[in-house]
Amino acid sequence: MKARGRHWLMLWLVLFLGVAAAVVSRQRAALLTARSLDSLRNQRVALEGEKARLDRQIEEATSRTVLIPQMERAGFHQPDDHESRILKADSLSPGLRPDH
């Protein structure tokens, strides 16, 4: 049986519709992915802002202007220079360092 003109037209039409459906499907998936990515970026910005706010609160709560009055109310005295040491995290021995 020899394919006639209308058969070839039908074949090309089905092929075109299949490719068009694939393109539309990929575009829809890309749009959903872009929306999800935008939502995640907004969440990230909000969380970074919250982290900055909490870091400021920690800095303020551990400052000398806040801690010294609390110490004095609790009955402690302000340490002299020879009574205090500043410890850094990297000065800890390897066994006492927190795992990363």
Radius of gyration (CA) equals 34 Å
Calculate the terminal CA-CA distance, rounded to whole Å.
73 Å
- What is the number of E strands? 0
Biggest beta sheet attributes: none
Number of DSSP helical runs:
2
pLDDT average, as an integer?
Answer: 88
Strand fraction: under 5%
Topology as H/E string?
HH
Tell me what you see in this structure:
The chain has 100 residues and is an all-alpha fold. The protein contains 2 helices and no strands. It has helices at residues 5-61, 64-73. The longest helix is centred in the N-terminal third of the chain and has 57 residues, at 5-61. The relative contact order is 0.04. The model has no long low-confidence stretch (mean pLDDT 88).
Give a brief rundown of this model.
By secondary structure, this protein is mainly α.
Task: Please give a handful of descriptors for the protein shown.
67% helix, single chain, 2 helices, 0% strand
